[in-house]
Design goal:
By secondary structure, the protein is mostly beta strands. It has two domains: 160 residues, no CATH class; 166 residues, no CATH class. It contains eight helices and 24 strands. The strands form five sheets. Strands 5, 6, 7, 8, 9, 10, 11, 12 and 13 form a nine-stranded mixed beta sheet that branches. Strands 18, 19, 20, 21, 22, 23 and 24 form a seven-stranded mixed beta sheet that branches. The chain has a three-stranded antiparallel beta sheet with strand order 3-4-14, with no helix packed on it. Strand 15 and strand 16 form a beta hairpin. The chain is globular. The chain starts with a strand and ends with a helix. Bound molecules: zinc ion (2 copies). One zinc ion binds next to loops.
Amino acid sequence: MEIQVEHECPQCGAPIQFEETDRLLRCPYCDVQNFLFVRDYFRYVLPHKAPGREIIYAPYLRFKGSVYYCQGMNINYRVVDITNTGLFFKGIPDSLGLRPQAMKMKFVEPDTEGSFLRFTLQAKDIIARAGRFSEESSCGTLYHRAYIGETLSIIYLPLYEEKGRLFDAVLNRPIANLSKGGDTIGSAVNKNPRWMLSFIPTLCPVCGWNLKGERDSVILTCDNCYTAWEAHGGKFEQVRFFLVPAQGKNSIYLPFWKISAGIKGIEINSFADFIRFTNQPKAIKKEWETMGMSFWSPAFKIRPKIFLNLSKRLTITREQFHTEKTIKGKCLYPVTLPQAEAVQGMKLTLAGSTLNKKTILPLMPRIGFEIKKTTLVYLPFQETGQEMIQEHTKITINKNSLAFGRKL
Ligand SMILES: [Zn+2]
Ligand SMILES: [Zn+2]
């Protein structure tokens, strides 16, 4: 489900329309670019059609992302796309149905009028229920579960009370009778929420140049001083990055996270240990014995099966790339998966790389990582027909899968 949002440009006040996963807003009127940032969740309201009423907003959890399960002897995954009520109150619908698709949502701001009901259910229970597999595939012990690349937000449905009845303020239709003497809707109101939404101007903190990115980018780059930035805690933080120069012309650079880490809970202290433990059909080189472990992950959203496969192949390949920092004039594919999400994929990469799942899956709960260094690496790909081919490793990615990933 795709959701459209509308917001006024913080500079000129013109309405800007965008999608829920967009973070970089460029105003088509004044051309000013801002990065959107919230402390916890993005909160939206569905615009009501009941002017003059006292509006009460009911919260819905909005989750869109990939859920991975290590269960029994298998690694399963699925893409989950839900909106589900965040409180139990008789008569309030479980789901928003098609409403969010049919209308443009607005951000909740400090001056949004109305009262907001508290989100009282557990988000993780709602998502776990939605991501549950059918009986056949979900037998065996659940060893590990991970959510990767998710968009998690809260959508508020407007309601109002009239003569003991609760009305849906979008459709102006009664949805429930409020019981006399029982819990009133007023007791569930969240008093004084201080939800803030910030817009950060996208100027390079080092040189003041305009940072570059696409609407769904989570990392912005500076073409002037060759730096990369991730919005974190309300400001831009510098990210370590390299680019691997192309051998040919017209290459497209796809971003990957390379995470150097120590592994706790099992005996893997070097790349050689990793090759032995996972039982790769590969002759171990002497220098691998002293080489630390690095996990690779796509830094862009893509279907779970391809995400796992790319992570695994780049981690096992362990190509020694020649790197540089010049990005000017290079065609960089946007980073749409933050580094914190890539970190959550490390256990899955380890499990996916291990040929005998029986030896690895039961160990999952006690495996941990000590992250030493995270680097963003842009690898050159050549376009050929329907495929993109990595110039050094010959790893291929289907172009349609890349395009589809931007809708995840
Ligand atoms: Zn503007
Ligand atoms: Zn700069």
